[in-house]
Automatic annotation (TrEMBL):
This is Membrane protein. The lineage of its organism: Bacteria, Bacillati, Actinomycetota, Actinomycetes, Kitasatosporales. Residues 18-60 form the TadE-like domain. Pfam families: TadE. Keywords: Membrane, Transmembrane, Transmembrane helix. InterPro entries: TadE-like_dom.
Length: 152
């Protein structure tokens, strides 16, 4: 006699042929999803930094302008240039109207100008997959003191 069929062919281990393919089919989409989420989070953080820089540029440009009309135009131009320089595309025209205020200091009151930039970015731009639905609004705000020596 042979002395036991299964034990003679390699012991009592169960066959696991094809289990690697099944595990890969289940795990690969999960790993890719996490990778795409990490890429999107990184791109969203970078886009937020660019929008913050655009708000800084807009506030500084508005603080140097000689009139409120010129401040509005200079701020809008600076915001557009800052976003275009880093290839950030907003689905709508980014806001960037300057708002004036005062800052009380020990040396007297200072006039300030605040620019808030809101940019709605499609998620397909963040992840790099065309046709991905949804969008994310990123906002940056910066306040600058009006330049006392800018002239009238």
């Amino acid at each position: 006699m042979n002395g036991g069929g299964a034990a003679g062919r390699g012991g009592s281990r169960p066959r696991d042929r094809g289990s690697f393919a099944i595990e890969a089919a289940v795990l690969v989409p999960v790993v890719l999803s996490f990778a795409l989420m990490a890429v999107a989070a990184g791109r969203l953080q970078t886009t937020g930094s660019v929008v913050d820089a655009a708000a800084r540029a807009g506030a500084r440009a508005a603080s140097l302008a000689r009139s409120p009309e010129a401040a509005r135009q200079d701020a809008a131009d600076a915001v557009r240039q800052a976003l275009a320089a880093r290839s950030v595309t907003c689905t709508a025209e980014p806001t960037g109207d300057p708002v004036y205020g005062t800052l009380a200091t020990t040396g007297g009151a200072l006039t300030t100008v605040t620019v808030r930039v809101s940019c709605t970015v499609p998620l397909s731009d963040l992840v790099g997959l065309d046709g991905l639905p949804g969008s994310k609004t990123v906002t940056g705000t910066f306040t600058s003191v009006l330049d006392r020596y800018r002239g009238n």
